[in-house]
Design a protein that fits this description.
The chain is mostly beta strands. It is built from one helix and 17 strands. The chain has one helix at 3-14; strands at residues 27-29, 39-41, 44-46, 49-51, 56-59, 62-67, 75-83, 86-93, 101-108, 114-121, 127-134, 137-145, 155-162, 165-170, 173-178, 187-194, 208-218. The strands form three sheets. Strands 1, 5, 6, 8, 13, 14, 15 and 17 form an eight-stranded antiparallel sheet that branches. It has a seven-stranded antiparallel sheet with strand order 2-7-16-9-10-11-12, with no helix packed on it. The protein has a two-stranded antiparallel ribbon with strand order 3-4.
């Protein structure tokens, strides 16, 4: 066997295979459109809200999760891929619709099995809830005040998780970290605006919407 042929065989054996290489899954979506390869619009009942695709739209370079006038219905998107760890960030201005919330979260069925939540109250109070669920129960929850009106301007919200640990950040500041009771299972990434049964269910008198400028996911 010639020296050149031997070198070619060795190089081929040592070269990394790309046939079964897993994609990184990382993305930054500025919502020029709702990419069906990345997102699915929710169609189900949640709390007081019928979440429908008609309440999910893209316009003016942003995603809108609409809360229609005179209704407690809402909108939701869910990622087509699942993620077991990483950093998920959104820049959004929440709807002005007291007794509703905007969620940016990770979830996998069944309920209480695997979930990591940021839930912002859709009113000027600046209240936000951070929560985790694992193994069939809620493992952590904390309600805080952000110190600003989240309905007035967009802000950055982030979940960084992996290896049984999670940190929640707002505008680059870590507000809560938990190192126990955090699922390690893969989950879909969600954003929604809706009316929980545990709030008053006051339908807005005019059309409201949570406006999402961007959602980004990167691996840790």
């Amino acid at each position: 066997m010639s020296r050149l042929l031997l070198l070619a065989i060795v190089s081929a054996l040592m070269a990394p295979s790309t046939t079964n290489a897993a994609p990184s899954g990382a993305f930054r979506d500025g919502f020029t459109t709702l990419d069906p390869a990345r997102w699915t619009a929710g169609e189900h009942q949640l709390g007081r809200s019928a979440l429908t695709a008609g309440n999910v739209l893209v316009r003016n370079g942003a995603l809108e999760l609409v809360l229609p006038a005179g209704s407690t219905d809402g909108g939701e998107i869910r990622s087509t891929q699942t993620y077991a760890s990483g950093v998920a960030t959104t820049r959004m201005r929440v709807a002005s619709a007291p007794s509703s919330i905007t969620g940016f979260f990770l979830y996998a069925a069944p309920d209480y099995a695997s979930e990591i939540d940021i839930e912002v109250f859709n009113d000027p109070s600046g209240k936000v809830m951070f929560s985790t669920y694992a193994g069939g129960r809620q493992t952590h929850t904390e309600t805080r005040t952000l110190g600003f009106d989240p309905t007035a301007a967009p802000h950055d919200y982030e979940i960084a998780w992996g290896s049984g640990r999670v940190s929640f950040s707002v505008d680059g500041v870590v507000l809560r970290t938990w190192t126990t009771g955090v699922t390690k299972l893969p989950m879909n990434l969600y954003a929604n605006a809706w009316f929980p049964a545990w709030l008053d269910g006051l339908a807005p008198t005019g059309r409201q919407a949570t406006v999402i400028d961007q959602i980004e996911y990167r691996r840790r």
